[in-house]
Amino acid sequence: MDNSMSDRFSNHVVLVAGGTGALGRAVSAAFLAEGATLIATYRATGEFDELARQAGASRERLEGRRVDVTDPSATQTLVEEIITRHAHIDVLVNAAGGYTGGAPTWKVDPADLERMLSLNLRSGHALARAVVPVMLTQNRGCIVNVIAKAALDHPARASAYAASKAAALAMMGSLAAELVGSAVRANSVLPSIFDTAANRGAMPKADFSRWPKPEDIARVILFLCSEDARVIRGAAIPVYGDS
Ligand SMILES: NC(=O)c1ccc[n+]([C@@H]2O[C@H](COP(=O)([O-])OP(=O)(O)OC[C@H]3O[C@@H](n4cnc5c(N)ncnc54)[C@H](OP(=O)(O)O)[C@@H]3O)[C@@H](O)[C@H]2O)c1
């Protein structure tokens, strides 16, 4: 690691929703390595335990909260608890999300569409609803949403996923426009496919070397949250690598 950058986020309180997922844990680890106090939301306790184990000396700056971030009232309570404990939230990264696919649109179960909208769209809304007023009051803040290339290219047999990601991209674009003139910035990153155990399992014949690593995408997210990116608002940055 570049030591000159190792304290970029000291004194920052960073909330990573889905902070124990394949990308989320790389984002959490990267912020911890650069000095942040990190709150990761999770659902599976074992995943948080694994993140905590990997945190090593940063463990004392890591907190986990078992929260369903698609639930607006649970998310509001989470944010209130963070403010009570830490007084501020400087960064929000929403890395919670999920995928469903395989069926053409006319065979998509309405329950699957509902699940995609909850996980990929409503989570971002619930988090923004709770966090943005805090950031505006404290006059400081940065938000990064993890969306997907599918928001733009609408692949076949993934319509519920693509629609939920396109809606999330639109919502975060509007949010970024609303924040112009404030000290709060919002941006998005759009992964295509990246190197996870789940993707390797689903596509065993793919050339994994072409897939970005979660750590590569985490670096872009940290850049967006850094002072160097202070003029970037409303961006939707492709992080496709060679995939
Ligand atoms: N993987 C890819 O190739 C790819 C490509 C394009 C875009 N993306 C997007 O990138 C983001 C991260 O993907 P990933 O591969 O890291 O996914 P992942 O490994 O499945 O991680 C998602 C995380 O979100 C959490 N989560 C799910 N539902 C939640 C809820 N209701 N409340 C709180 N947390 C919840 C999961 O917790 P549990 O594990 O405990 O359920 C997990 O920690 C997602 O938005 C995904 O759509 C991924």
Would you give an account of this structure?
The chain has 243 residues and is of the alpha/beta class. It has one domain (3-239): Rossmann fold. The chain has helices at 22-33, 45-55, 72-86, 110-138, 150-153, 159-178, 197-202, 214-225; strands at 13-17, 37-42, 62-66, 91-94, 141-146, 184-191, 236-239. A 7-stranded parallel sheet has the order 3-2-1-4-5-6-7, with helices on both faces. Helix 1 packs across helix 8 (214-225), helix 3 (72-86) packs parallel to helix 4 (110-138) and helix 4 runs parallel beside helix 6 (159-178). The radius of gyration is 17 Å and the shape is globular. It starts with 12 loop residues before the first strand and ends with a strand. The model has no long low-confidence stretch (mean pLDDT 96). The structure holds NADP nicotinamide-adenine-dinucleotide phosphate. NADP nicotinamide-adenine-dinucleotide phosphate binds next to helix 1 and strand 2. The site of NADP nicotinamide-adenine-dinucleotide phosphate has 27 residues, from helix 1 and strand 2.
